């Protein structure tokens, strides 16, 4: 008998995308470490991976996060 059980977080009515099973779920089905969300609707949860790709692309192309390339000189003696 386990003294401490891992509690799943989330509530019914909240939508998540499970990274392990690659499926949308409502409420606490899988552990929080394996989920993205919560999302407001099932449709938003279904787009979770696409939304993540879009946000990653925006971040990678954001000039505020891009460091200018340093000029490379020949520093060898």
Automatic annotation (TrEMBL):
<feature type="region of interest" description="Disordered">
    <location>
        <begin position="28"/>
        <end position="77"/>
    </location>
</feature>
<protein>
    <recommendedName>
        <fullName>SPOR domain-containing protein</fullName>
    </recommendedName>
</protein>
<feature type="compositionally biased region" description="Basic and acidic residues">
    <location>
        <begin position="43"/>
        <end position="65"/>
    </location>
</feature>
